[in-house]
Automatic annotation (TrEMBL):
Pfam families: GMC_oxred_C (PF05199), GMC_oxred_N (PF00732)
SUPFAM superfamilies listed in its UniProt record: FAD-linked reductases, C-terminal domain (SSF54373), FAD/NAD(P)-binding domain (SSF51905)
Cofactor(s) the protein needs: FAD
Alphabetized UniProt keyword annotations: FAD, Flavoprotein
Protein's organism: Oppiella nova
PROSITE patterns according to UniProt: GMC_OXRED_1, GMC_OXRED_2
Gene3D superfamilies documented for this protein: FAD/NAD(P)-binding domain, Glucose Oxidase, domain 3
InterPro entries cross-referenced by the UniProt entry: FAD/NAD-bd_sf, GMC_OxRdtase, GMC_OxRdtase_N, GMC_OxRtase_C
Family: Belongs to the GMC oxidoreductase family.
Lineage: Eukaryota, Metazoa, Ecdysozoa, Arthropoda, Chelicerata
Residues annotated as domain Glucose-methanol-choline oxidoreductase N-terminal: 188-211, 362-376
Protein name: Glucose-methanol-choline oxidoreductase N-terminal domain-containing protein
A molecular-function term among this protein's GO annotations: oxidoreductase activity, acting on CH-OH group of donors
Length: 677
């Protein structure tokens, strides 16, 4: 027995015979060397351990078989409920076991901070090559119901234990309907990070985006053609209709297209097609057009990086430590990063990294940790008496984000809607056994198109998201309209949620405005200042106004108007223009921005990547922090500008690419095709 890539072993660490599926050896023959004792006890413990390994791989399938049998013989609802609870409990035990470590070594080859879309992948790939890796996470385990069930995505956002909620600095020109006129942004504080709490959209972005960062910023190796193998490496796309030139079939990450989108979404897509937009694979050769978006969902379950990587069998050397809050990078000498300091259970600890320390804490936390560690603008760090200052870099600059607002369009006839997600017995049964029903999916339609400030039709800059919301749905108004004037907003939202709605969301995908992150305190527990500066560039404002106008145009002037309509009541604080269609009412569009526009949870750029001789970058094209040895940042904060897509796929490909760069520098004879997909 031994690691699967060893030439001198017969079975891997899970006792599976190499090269033959569905065959194991479970007896004392698997021990690599003789036990220094009589072997009977060792043989028996091999039996216990081996049985547990087999059950881990098959036990959930057993529950599905039992559920199917119960349905066939028409057993009681109580029996269904007990079996489903058993299945859920088994899954939760698996999550909790991943998060259960309470001891750790003093040093590791690599220490990775953050288990999100990038960090989990980095740690997993490094450990697969035989390195010792400690992966640190501030949060805890996933929830087998709330975070694993796609249809409960908005329910999960009401559970703050898995979230880190940041307040943006006020901007008087937007977000005034929110409490204190201040918008918020959440990040996942849980195994899997944002990939555990996001809307599961799998959208890579346009090839011209990746080509531009390679060309314009000197990020050699980051063009689309150079990244495509890494996208495919991670992906296990189950849609038989996608082009294998652009998609992977054997990676750890399950990706799927909703097999039965709601009829109303198909009507919406049809109306866009009638306007001349082609129906596309948004992750294919072109992005101009409309599509039902692919999602990180497999077998009716969310495919976070925690579920798809950390709980897979490709990370044998990986140690995961949860509820460990990293406060700074330990730096000495040349300067040279030698590990991290973290708190756990109200105690402070240090752990050494003998090869590299890797920050994958995200676009807010990675720059925050760097600044607390003495890496950032010298004058800013001196203000907080942080010393020594190891490297004077533009850490926290160049913050970019998408901008969004949500418009609720009431549905005329509910016959085009499927039942909304509810955690009841029937829906749980459908989700667990057949991977169908409202709990097993989270369908969304997207249109990628151009504003008036963008003439390149091969590189769309705005987007319309559309999703159905059933009557008395998931409380989404509590998430997006945390109103500072509840006496106005509550009655309005009550009328909205009494009806089923098509939620249409214009999104600015290619902004030019930039913000920044700065320290508020030298106390690591105090969140940093986050100034988004959304829509401050005049082109951004015009492009977003174009997107809002077009959302109303589609509803008022195309065939979808037979099924949905503009709410006759304007949002509180705004007024429609008399005697003209809403899509022509620019004053209402501007008022919508002022009241409910906000950041779309896709920040990038705060540890900008580029050629090492540029003054405006923090990391070079190999993601090494300038001026500090053995320290990298590998997450979406390294992208020089914001991706014109939801950023989860880009963060994951940064993890795959970043891991390969680390291995190239440390692993003699390493070639990228050695990593098992």
């Amino acid at each position: 027995m031994g690691a699967v890539d060893r030439d001198d072993v017969v079975v891997d660490e899970r006792l599976r015979v190499k090269g033959v599926r569905n065959l194991r050896v479970i007896d004392s023959s698997v021990y690599p060397t003789v036990i220094n004792a009589n072997t009977n006890a060792a043989a028996m413990v091999a039996g216990e351990k081996g049985a547990a390994l087999v059950l881990e791989d098959h036990h959930q399938d057993l529950f599905k078989i039992l559920l199917l049998y119960c349905k066939m013989v028409e057993v009681s609802t109580l029996t269904y409920t007990i079996l489903m609870l058993s299945w859920i409990t088994t899954r939760q035990i698996r999550h909790d076991r991943t998060a259960s470590r309470e001891t750790w070594d003093n040093s590791y080859d690599f220490v990775v901070v953050g288990t999100g879309s990038a960090g989990a992948i980095v740690a997993c790939r490094l450990s697969h090559e035989g390195y010792s890796v400690l992966l640190l996470e501030a949060g805890g385990a996933q929830d087998a119901v709330l975070t694993d069930t796609p249809g409960l995505v908005f329910h999960s956002l009401l559970d703050s234990k898995n979230l880190c909620i940041y307040s943006n600095e006020k901007q008087p020109e937007l977000g005034q309907a929110f409490i204190n006129g201040q918008t918020s942004e959440f990040k996942g504080k849980v195994l899997g990070g944002g990939s555990t709490v996001n809307n599961m959209i799998y959208n890579r972005g346009n090839r011209k985006y990746y080509d531009s960062i390679a060309r314009d910023f000197g990020a050699n190796g980051w063009s689309f053609e150079q990244l495509l193998p890494y996208f495919k490496k991670s992906e296990n796309n189950t849609d038989p209709n996608v082009d294998p030139i652009y998609h992977g079939r054997s990676g750890p990450l399950g990706v799927s297209t909703p097999p039965n989108p709601e009829p109303l979404l198909l009507k919406w897509q049809q109306s866009l097609h009638e306007l001349g937009y082609p129906i596309i694979d948004a992750n294919g050769p072109t992005q101009y057009g409309t599509s039902i978006m692919q999602s990180t969902i497999r077998d009716g379950l969310r495919q976070s990086t925690a579920n798809s990587y950390l709980e897979s069998n490709i990370c044998p050397q990986l140690n995961i430590l949860t509820r460990a809050f990293v406060t700074k990078v330990l730096i000495e000498g040349q300067p040279n990063a030698v590990g991290v300091e973290f708190t756990k259970g109200n105690r402070e600890y240090r752990v050494q990294a003998t090869k590299e320390t890797i920050l994958s804490a995200g676009p807010f936390n990675s720059p925050h940790i760097l600044m607390l560690s003495g890496i950032g603008h010298r004058d800013h760090l001196e203000k907080f008496e942080i010393s020594p200052i190891w490297s004077d870099l533009p850490v926290g600059d160049n913050l970019q984000n998408h901008v969004i607002l949500i418009i609720s369009m009431p549905v005329r006839n509910g016959s085009l809607l499927l039942p909304g997600p509810q955690p009841n017995v029937q829906q749980l049964y459908d989700s667990i056994v057949s991977h169908t029903g409202p709990l097993a999916t989270s369908p969304l339609s997207c249109l990628h198109f151009n504003s008036s400030v963008n003439s390149d039709w091969t590189y769309p800059d705005i987007n319309l998201h559309a999703a159905t919301v059933p009557a008395y749905g998931l409380g989404y108004e509590n998430i997006f309209y945390l109103a500072k004037r509840p006496e106005e907003w509550r009655p309005y939202m009550d009328t909205v949620i009494m009806n089923a709605n098509l939620a249409v969301a214009p999104v600015l995908f290619s902004p030019k405005s930039t913000g920044y992150i700065r320290l508020k305190s030298r106390d690591p527990m105090t969140f940093p200042i986050i100034q988004q500066n959304l829509l401050r560039h005049p082109d951004d404002r015009q492009a977003f106004l174009d997107a809002i106008s077009y959302a109303f145009y589609v509803v008022e002037e195309t065939s979808i108007s037979e099924h949905v309509y503009v709410n006759p009541e304007p949002i509180p604080g705004c007024q429609y223009c008399p005697d003209i269609p809403v899509w022509k009412c620019s004053s209402y569009h501007k008022c919508l921005i002022q009241q409910i526009a906000t950041a779309f949870l896709h920040p990038v750029g705060t540890c900008r990547m580029g050629a090492v001789d540029r003054d405006d970058v923090v990391v070079d094209e190999r993601l090494r922090v300038k001026g500090v040895r053995n320290l990298r940042v590998i997450d979406s904060s390294v992208y020089p500008t914001v991706i014109n897509a939801n950023t989860n796929a880009a963060a994951m490909v940064a993890g795959e690419k970043g891991a390969a760069l680390v291995l190239e520098d440390h692993h003699q004879g390493y070639s990228d095709n050695k990593i098992r997909d």
